[in-house]
Amino acid sequence: MVEINKSDKQRIEKFIDDNQLDYEVSESLSKFGLISYDKTIFYLYKYNESYVLVKYNPEKDKIDNPGSIAYEYFSFQNLSQILEQLSFYDNNLHKTYWSPTLNSVEVDFDKENYDKDWYVDIISDGYQVSEGNGYDYITYTNDNYKPEIISPFNTLHEVSTINNKVATKLDKLYFEIHPISCKTKNESYFFKLSANNEDVLKEYINYVVVKKKGLKILLQSLFKEMDPFKI
Questions:
Q1: For position 170, what pLDDT does the model report?
Q2: 119 near 138, Cβ under 8 Å?
Q3: Cys-Cys crosslink for 123: which of 98, 113, 127, 184, Cβ 3.0 to 4.6 Å?
Q4: 55: phi then psi, degrees, rounded to nearest 5
Q5: How far apart are CA 75 and CA 86, in angstroms?
Q6: pTM for this structure?
């Protein structure tokens, strides 16, 4: 087996970018590999006129996992078939692009990789761009939504059985998106969703979001959940 050529590598990388697949390229002098979201590694080779895809599972290669087969070999007639399989594998992985975080969390801003146009392909009608702390961030306000949100700060139900945990009806939908890092393919964001109607003592439900793709999925999910509260 021999390593795939430069043209094939470029085609694979373009396919990953165009389809927003969660693979990282890993290349050495003799191996061209792709690291998937679940840390499985795919190596690609040519053998005569065929392509060989080697699937490597590092977890099965550990000393405490004897008898496991860490490498699997698959043969394909052309590169298009491999691209199809890579897409299928990536799209069928369970992924987590955002996770809740405390209101008081300190998020380190990656000034070195900041891109002043980070929000250009994210914003649409209703979004505003503001400046603060040395970077631009996004705000969104829409009083056509009257969402009902359970605030994580309302904890009376934990100290008394008399109190029920109820949702707060908001007079508008409001959120902020702050960039943490704009590093290509490793973007991250701080997402703040308003959880009360106070102008001074504001409460937010906060998330750290990874990848631009993840941010777009979060926004799509949010507006889908907000549909029943639109007037």
A1: 93
A2: yes
A3: 127
A4: -100, 120
A5: 13
A6: 0.82
State how far the Cα of 45 lies from the Cα of 5, in Å rounded to an integer.
9
Rounded distance between C-alpha atoms, residue 187 and residue 213, angstroms? 9
Pairing state of beta strands 173-181 and 168-169? Answer: unpaired
Q: Are residues 113 and 180 in the same domain?
A: yes
Calpha distance 136→120 (Å, rounded): 11
Instruction: Using the 3D structure, point to which of 91, 121, 138 is the last residue of a domain.
Output: 91
Contact 94, 38 (CB under 8 A): no
At residue 163, the pLDDT reads 45
Domain that holds residue 57: 2-91
Confidence of residue 156 (pLDDT cuts 50, 70, 90): very low
Domain boundary among 91, 125, 148: 91
What's the CA dihedral at 228, 224, 102, 209 to 10 degrees?
-170
Task: Calculate what percentage of the chain has a pLDDT beyond 70.
Answer: 90
N- to C-terminal Cα separation, the chain: 62
